[in-house]
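Anyone else keep sequences and structure tokens together like this?

Example one:
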Amino acid sequence: MSNELDNLSRRVAAGKLSRRDFLGRAAAIGVTATFANSLLASAVRAAGPVRGGILRAGMQGGAATDSLDPATWSSQVPYFFGRQWAEQLVQISAEGEVKPALAEEWSASDDAKVWTFKIRKGVQFHNGKEMTPADVVATMERHSDKNSKSGALGIMGGIDNVKAEGDTVVFSLKDANADLPFLLDDYHLMIQPNGGKDNPAEGIGTGPYKIAVNEAGLRLGGEKFANYWRDDRGFADQIEIIVINDATARTSALQGGQVDIINRVEPKVVELIKRTPGVTIQNVAGKGHYVFIAHCNTAPFDNNDLRLALKYALDREEMVQKILQGYGSVGNDTPINQAYPLFTEMEQRTYDPEKAAFHYKKSGHSGPVLLRTSDVAFPGAVDATQLYQQSAAKAGITIEVKREPGDGYWSEVWNKQPFSASYWGGRPTQDQMYSTAYYSKADWNDTRFFREDFDKMLFQARAELDVEKRKKIYADMGTIVRDEGGAIVPMFNDFIDATSSKVGGWSPDGNQEMMGGYALSKCWLVA
């Protein structure tokens, strides 16, 4: 029986037998669907990439307001689609290492203030133009411009100037920064012709797929770019993203074969999905975290006692247990966890209704506190908000919950309304996380955390090449954010995706969901 199944599974992996026929023959000889699928998955991994076909993903995180302009990407669908048609100078591997992409190699001055990147030759944009160092410089200039409203503006603030020298691009920094290569993996910094200055939403990049369909909030598609410069990705002839913001509909689409991959599987249904034939849960821990964000410069959240009251009024353990179902860990009101190499353990904040009541009374606030939430904020966000409402009530704090529609949440609620549910996928380094979301001048400073002393510490940490001293600075910064910031962080989440047995090439990547955003270009269809 074993030899027969092995032969059949290899035929499926080679594209000579359909998955359905394989499962039918396996059932006929008394093999369970679970074991047959496991054997098939092993055969697919061993067989290697298969080229051709249309690989489809059903995703939460798309809206009619989405744009192809990389500067504006703030949710999963535009970010994920962007990974398929555009590229940065470098890419962070699943192991957390900086790997060459559009830059072949790089080096730094002894003081880490001048960085030189050698730009890869022979790379074509989808419009046929060859990428040059001038395109790289123009890209960096555009994302440094406040008018671009780029999500990368915070990290670009440390760059004094960028210039092309022959086949290289030289970055001169205001202060030393040993993390610069990591920062250049930021998904907003996609290299575009003339930096996208002519038409940033045109969708012209160097990635394995060129844009064929752009129906914002509905459907996005790409077709294989014939002149793509590398051969380790882009296996399907076509890719497609179908926006399915409803979790139940997304799961049904995977089970019914309308899509091959889905993101944002809700933890409460994971065990049920695991029992579904032909479907595999793909989960990995990382730096992603779910948050309730309060604007520190907007009443009543400009009062730190009120912010502390809201932090102590949150039962993190209950939320992790009931919302994450074990697929994550407790948060501590900072965006940094043990997944970061320079992480320092801090005293864990716990649910304390008495302390919450004390700080609430001290704040002088009375009446309800309005918290906005949505199904798209994070998996289980609406349920999490209701749990928060209940735990806060025990401290005498009334949280009024307003459920917002998913379409438009990222453009009309997040980073605009003073108290809302949200999520962060994390960043490769502490510098990048703090620079993107807590630096005073960052466009994505979504808690309106403006602290001159914090900014100085951020610059000091960048310039500090002694690892232990740098770690201590980051620890002090984390304490400030935890005790005085506007981020209420109940939990760090696993990234939970799911694939059909037709998908080969999946590998865990804790940098982001969907294999760090590369699932459609690194996976393939086995039959």
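And example two:
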Amino acid sequence: MPSKPKSTKKLKMKTSFLSTIKPNNKSKRSAGLVKSALGIFAMICVVSCKVGEEYTRPDFGDDVSSEFYTGEEEDETLSVDSLNTNDVNNDTIPMSEIPWKDYITDETLQTLIDTALVNNIDLQKAMKNMEIGMEELAQSKANFLPSINARPADYRREYYSENYNNYGSNRARRNHGENPPTSFYTERLEYSAALQANWELDVWGKLRWQKEAARAQFMKSKEFKKAVQTSLISEVAATYFNLVMLKSQIEVAEKNYALSDSTLNIVQLQYDAGESTSLAIQQTKSQKLKAKTLIPQLERQYVIMENKLNRLLGRSPRPIEIDTDFEQIEFQKRYTSGVPLELIKNRPDVAMSEYELITANADAGVANALRYPSLSIGASAGLNSFQLEEFLDPVSSGFALLNGAIFQPIFNNRKLKTNYNIALSQKEIAQLDFKDDLITAIADVSNSLAKMEKLKEEYAIAQERIEVTQKGLKDAGMLFRGGYANYLEVITAQSDALESELNLINIKNQLLIANVELYRSLGGGWQ
């Protein structure tokens, strides 16, 4: 009898020992499965880095020039020393890097540009588009985080009658057996509150490429704002110079009209003395009226230009006070134009084109990632009860769910492949657009440089011509008064002098605008 309890004790000890061994084996297997799953997930993450192609700026080789072409052998430094008395020395500063207030020194024009930068409607719209791009970029970053939704309170009550076709369900039979009530009755009563979360793992980089596309679009909106600002400064300056030019031309026209009136008085005196004919009076009077007609023409153009400037300033038409003397406006000193490839970082429109290429590259990455399985994880937790008094008891009413899903497209794989091929073609189109925009920008600068050089030559000739015509006008007046020249010679000299003065003012205005256009074409004005 004593030995029986002893064997029983050994058996219990053995059983207890075996029972402690089995859980350890299960835990080891579970740990192995977890490690395998983590290993597979790590391999997927490594492979995912290969989906899509990182953006690199294309090399266009000899198709994109390394220097600007102006039709002449010259260095890249723009020189307008002969037309400028400014002592500023910025020979080594690329023009595109100069802040616009250092490049445009006219104080009246600076005030107008400051007003335009605050009130211009197009610039305000560009800033709003930039804000939209910033919001979209923030959203693309938030896509990496789980989405969490709350259902704080949900109440559900279902009413049925005897002949409702759902009575055959197990729930209805469980609640009412074979004899359901004949009138409306409560079939289901539910109180619930839940918190749900869903997270899509960026296994193949889809979300990363979406973020890259959103970032490129945001940067494009910033460059668009810069482009609007650069264009606005250029347009305000050009309109301002046109106003000053018209004001100066009106003064010249009024002076010429007064001179024509003086000539008519002399011809009238000669006619009264019998030294000239009525034809001389008629032709001189016609010349006077021609000079007078030019004044309202210029004044009309001035009002139109004034209204244009007001619109750029973001306000309704009104008079603009301009006290600037056109002859006192100076051209810019020597600045370097830089090299063509600098336009990529300087010119907003070229930068916008490159960001469009970056977006197309990211879209191709998204289209490629969509061809591979997507992995999402979901979870929810909350309270659910058909009794209100038990609803807030987490022990009797609580629930928690965890789920995961892998989605692999099969039958629509052809569609996804087509979308990917289209995205690649669109990327190639964007690259061609970028190349074309860069070549266009280089041509724009080259045209501006050539225009500057030829306008300088034209301006020098116009200065020489006005000296000749002014001397001719003076001599014609003296000879006419002395009786050695007739009225036709005086009229011709006056017309020639008027034309030369208006032409000189017009060429100087073109040269001033060309300075601003060169500054804009090099990408200056947004600093």
